[in-house]
UniProtKB/TrEMBL annotation, chains A, B:
<dbReference type="InterPro" id="IPR049049">
    <property type="entry name" value="Beta-AFase-like_GH127_C"/>
</dbReference>
<feature type="domain" description="Non-reducing end beta-L-arabinofuranosidase-like GH127 middle">
    <location>
        <begin position="438"/>
        <end position="535"/>
    </location>
</feature>
<dbReference type="GO" id="GO:0016787">
    <property type="term" value="F:hydrolase activity"/>
</dbReference>
<feature type="domain" description="Non-reducing end beta-L-arabinofuranosidase-like GH127 C-terminal">
    <location>
        <begin position="538"/>
        <end position="649"/>
    </location>
</feature>
<dbReference type="InterPro" id="IPR012341">
    <property type="entry name" value="6hp_glycosidase-like_sf"/>
</dbReference>
<protein>
    <submittedName>
        <fullName>Glycoside hydrolase family 127 protein</fullName>
    </submittedName>
</protein>
<dbReference type="Pfam" id="PF20737">
    <property type="entry name" value="Glyco_hydro127C"/>
</dbReference>
<keyword id="KW-0378">Hydrolase</keyword>
<dbReference type="Pfam" id="PF07944">
    <property type="entry name" value="Beta-AFase-like_GH127_cat"/>
</dbReference>
<dbReference type="InterPro" id="IPR049174">
    <property type="entry name" value="Beta-AFase-like"/>
</dbReference>
<dbReference type="Pfam" id="PF20736">
    <property type="entry name" value="Glyco_hydro127M"/>
</dbReference>
<dbReference type="InterPro" id="IPR008928">
    <property type="entry name" value="6-hairpin_glycosidase_sf"/>
</dbReference>
<feature type="domain" description="Non-reducing end beta-L-arabinofuranosidase-like GH127 catalytic">
    <location>
        <begin position="16"/>
        <end position="428"/>
    </location>
</feature>
<dbReference type="InterPro" id="IPR012878">
    <property type="entry name" value="Beta-AFase-like_GH127_cat"/>
</dbReference>
<dbReference type="InterPro" id="IPR049046">
    <property type="entry name" value="Beta-AFase-like_GH127_middle"/>
</dbReference>
Length: 658, 658
């Protein structure tokens, strides 16, 4: 195996997270999520829906008889588990876990077909139908997840069995797809393999993988439209709902060639997985048109179609984007996986260009939508991440059935939990980017790292109490003194920050570049940067076009968005408004769900008792002053089923009740 | 035919509407809607979807070959047209129209089967499947509509051909359904025949029809559950979606025996049609338990599940009720037919008990939801009647696809337009009720009427400029002087009304009974009652539990609910609030869509230009004072596609912009 040259390896250096806040979640993934998921994949968790994923592999491998069960993409859950195992083993050796993974990899090898093909659904259930329904059947999608797993597992353990299995799979795919006569000019209905092939290319240096990824991306949305033709040739049959009279190409982001796309449309996870690969290819191929498309799509998505939580996807119909400024808080989708994909995309955009705005969104999605999706026990998850919840409506109004007031157990379609697991175990890859001889700091997560900057080895130690306190210390320790740059992101939420190097204040005006303070100087052993981002609760307002949030404010403190819950404020949260001018009282409550800063402010509340019966009246109900309590959004839904909301109406300060 | 005794005839007297406001709509129905619908039923309207309804009858009658087309309940459109024709002919003879109706009735007669059965779907398409899918197939529902048509047509013309056809149909139904051994213990999935059989009973005096209606009502929801058993015996097949794993009995209001029901659930049109029949039977059978159920259901529906427009049905999923206080304005259903059914139910409740609250709701539904459903041209209709519309969301957010920003042309499933037609042509039946020797005035629609009260014939002439002006004059002209009562409803929206008899003020405190001022005295020739209901724009607030309207107010003037439209205020209506304390300026605008009172008030609007890019910001956009214009809700959507909203946030009076 010939490793790719350092120059192209876009994930430089070596970073180990040492962070109280995130350390706890990463340990939770290692200690609970990964073992729990292993049991779930083996159908040994009594309270979880059956996965069938390992069973399907055992049947495909001929180890036992039986029928394929579960979703057509069930294999991918095994892959995502293996990928998380890879990252986890890189963080912390665990021979027992590695043995489990090796056994699973052996099983995968046995399920691989003579010609390299690997997919239990088409091996067991529809052997003659390979590659006949790219639109729905996720064959390349599943392969993509196994490729990501193979790369991660190789990088952690040096073991290449899964890697070799997947190289054979890709060789097979490469013989089926491509511009050559007689090959399919197609691509998967669910993007994923495109970004995976880039990873395989970066690991191996093999250009073939890069070319295949580019083929899938370039081919998408071209005329004649592959998915449309395939659907016609299947007799307009879909895997899910039989005969259909319409195929929505925008759902698959296959409505236009990717370089002509400007608006985020369709299924949001598919979209961000594709954009991630586009950004990868734009960098690796120096493809300006692709890069421009990425910037346009990024801008549309984050400036017109993103929730304050970093959630994307405004509707559960197709788990999809709707249109600009349509961000309803209660019928929302905002799938966990979609925000994880947004973080992938942000990471790749940061590799393309050191602009802090990408990291701002990465931080927003990470600390809110993604973090909030997992329960404190690691065993319950939100797939949908609403910003306003009325529990009774979730059960009694069918338009909100997809919204759950409490985190759910492991599903049969467990897409989100393993995605959280693989993100958190690889979180060290999201903290920094390197451009030239400058190290860009994107996330203030405590870590110890080593980079080669300006020709010298540099050890970095970053200490932080994020998200509770805004003080950060960063020790820069080059082996030899050297000229290089350290760039520090100024978070968009920060106001009045201060930066010192070795005790001397750094002047912002000279050194601010695209949202980073860039300090270029000769760094010497034990140089210390001190940052202080005032972490104070403040109000956030939404663009006037965002109708759902008109007249309302959200509370944010540092990267954390806050919310009101019935548990603190009583239900009927709609009756609460907060004072336009009131200040915030912030206290750290060590007893609240692992400890968190709670924010209180003055507000008022409709006095229900003042309303005399009837649905409508000429007389308004009285209001009374109340203290309003907000907690970090990511902690919502952990204290039983109750109301929750992020956007709160503002009102004049209330006088005494009538 | 033996006519029923006067005592039981619950529609007393004779009322002819003479009213500028409603006269125009009734003429529109006569001059445009009924002829247009006749052409539509014959598939001769180029811009309308094909109805197939007459064609189906021609095929069933053997006049031509062909296949059944359209919905399984397509026959009912013919029936509803005939019913409206009946009412119309009673208002105004029209030999050409009567000839058309007679021809259609001849056709219906030819389509009737030897044994009396009448239904083109099961005659043409599934001859062997009669009465095997009561749940979905609307056989009794269609029969019910033809019974209503037969009664109306007989009462207008004295012609009994359709009546005799329907008596044969009912004889056949009576041989199929009933408590007797070997008969079906079932009822229709869509209630309708129950209330129709009551009408047939009232016309003919035949107790058999009353008994059959009572059977259907009493049987509903009993265990073992007929619909559930039928579904099981069909192999869990539904007419609409093939095999299902669940039957939602609440959708059909068949989840509980009707006397045990207390909460309005399921498909809202089905519900109110059933409640109407229940109230009829409660009265005719003196059934206290049934009456109590009606009161409970009325209270739940109108005090917890009704929009300010008189709309019911909070979700398009099943066109159904959801649960108490769940009244979203933008994902609403509020079907036109459901509000018409609510008016039927209110009329029957008024016959059960003279309580003005029933008439309040009748008026609310009539002047807002129902009136607003029809375009000024009589050819375009809303099926869904939202209280908040963002046109782009209607096309781009699938959760709002059912909401239309403009009235639609005639549909294949044209349930609502003929329902509007039959309601408006029979509106004279909703103005008064008689209890004992007291005439109760429910609606202040101009009319000339004759009643027998206290043993004397009384001519009533009511003149009104409702809904624009609150002055009403009522001449009471008995043939001989006599003691009887005239009761005048004090509308719930009225504040500070005045009533005079022959110039002398009537004291309220002595004479208010259940929302009516009841004047019992010796009435003489040419007595005059003058009423003045101050018709002034005022604010209405919603119950604090009604989360969707929290912090907002609606504007109402007399019976009319008002709304803001983009056409007057510019779009982005979410950026507008009105002053908490501002007054209203009311002017009649003769040029606005047939003339209407327009209401203006002080408000403020977010200045979009003050927002610097980005979706979220610490800085709030500036606001500027604006004049806000509201028009009657029933006129919305007639000036192109734009935003509309009924519930408007209130804010402090705005100072100058920043």
């Amino acid at each position: 195996m010939n490793k790719i040259t350092e120059k192209k390896l876009t994930q430089p250096g070596n970073t180990t997270i040492k962070d109280e806040f995130w350390g706890r979640y990463i340990r939770l993934v290692q200690d609970v999520v990964i073992p729990y998921q292993y049991e779930a994949l083996h159908d040994r968790v009594p309270e979880a829906e059956l996965s069938h994923a390992i069973a399907n592999f055992e049947i495909a491998a001929g180890r036992r008889a039986g029928e394929f069960k579960g979703w057509v993409f069930q294999d991918s859950d095994v892959a995502k588990w293996l990928e998380a195992v890879g990252y986890s083993l890189k963080l912390k050796p665990d021979p027992g876990l590695e043995r489990q993974a090796d056994e699973v990899i052996d099983l995968i090898g046995e399920a691989q077909q003579e010609d390299g093909y690997l997919n239990t659904y088409f091996t067991v259930k529809e052997p003659g139908k390979r590659w006949t329904n790219l639109q729905d059947c996720h064959e390349l999608y599943c392969a993509g997840h196994f490729i990501e797993a193979a790369v991660a597992y190789y990088e952690a353990t040096g073991k290449d069995k899964l890697l070799n299995i997947m190289r054979r799979v890709v060789d097979h795919i490469d013989s089926v797809f491509g511009p050559e006569e007689g090959r399919l000019k197609g691509y998967d209905g669910h993007q994923e393999i495109e970004l995976a092939l880039v990873k395989l290319h970066l690991l191996t240096g093999n250009e073939k993988y890069l070319k295949l990824s580019s083929f899938f991306i370039d081919q998408r949305g071209q005329e004649p439209n592959f998915l449309h033709q395939e659907w016609e040739s299947r007799g307009r049959i879909t895997h899910w709902s039989g005969k259909t009279d319409h195929i929505d190409l925008a759902y698959f982001q296959a409505h236009l060639p990717v370089r002509e796309q400007s608006v985020a449309v369709g299924h949001s996870v598919r979209a961000v997985y594709m954009y991630t690969a586009m950004a990868d290819l734009a960098l690796l191929n120096g493809d300006r048109a692709l890069r421009d498309a990425c910037v346009r799509l990024w801008n549309n998505m984050t400036e017109k179609q993103m929730y304050i939580s970093g959630g994307i996807g405004s509707t559960h119909h197709g788990e999809a984007f709707t249109f600009d400024y349509d961000l309803p808080n209660d019928t929302i989708y905002a799938e966990t996986c979609a925000s994880i994909g947004l973080i992938f995309f942000a990471q790749r955009m940061l590799r393309l260009a050191p602009e802090a705005r990408y990291a701002d969104i990465m931080e927003r999605a990470l600390y809110n939508n993604v973090l909030g999706s997992m329960a404190q026990d690691g065993k319950h998850y939100f797939y949908v991440n609403p910003l306003e919840v009325w529990p009774q409506a979730c059960s009694c109004n069918p338009g909100k059935h997809h919204v759950k007031p409490e985190r759910q157990g492991w599903f049969g379609c467990a897409c989100c939990p393993p995605n959280v697991a693989r993100l958190l175990t690889s979180l060290n890859q999201y903290i920094y980017t390197v451009h030239g001889d400058t190290l860009y700091t994107n996330l203030y997560i405590g870590n110890e790292s080593n980079f080669t900057l300006g020709g010298t080895e540099v050890a970095i130690t970053l200490e932080s109490r994020f998200p509770w306190e805004g003080k950060v210390s960063m020790k820069v320790n080059p082996e030899q003194s050297g000229d290089f740059g350290i760039a520090l992101r100024i978070p968009s939420w920060s106001d009045g920050e201060e930066i010192k190097v070795n005790g001397e204040v750094v002047s912002f005006s000279e050194s601010l570049e695209q949202g980073y303070v860039v300090i270029r100087r000769e760094w010497k052993a034990d140089d210390v940067i001190e940052l202080n981002f005032p972490m104070e609760a403040h109000r956030v307002y939404a663009h006037p076009n965002l109708r759902a949030d008109a007249g309302k404010t959200a509370i944010q403190r540092g990267p954390l968005v806050y919310c009101l819950e019935g548990a603190d404020n009583g239900d009927l949260l709609s009756s609460i408004s907060i004072s336009k001018t009131g200040g915030f009282m912030e206290t750290f409550d060590g007893g609240l769900l692992g400890g968190a800063v709670v924010v209180k402010t003055a507000g008022c509340r409709v006095d229900e008792r003042s309303w005399n019966d009837g649905l409508y009246s000429r007389t308004k109900a009285a209001e009374m002053p109340v203290e309003v309590t907000a907690i970090p959004y990511y902690l919502w839904g952990n204290r039983g089923s109750g109301e929750m909301k992020v956007w709160i109406p503002e009102a004049e300060r209330q006088s005494l009740p009538r």
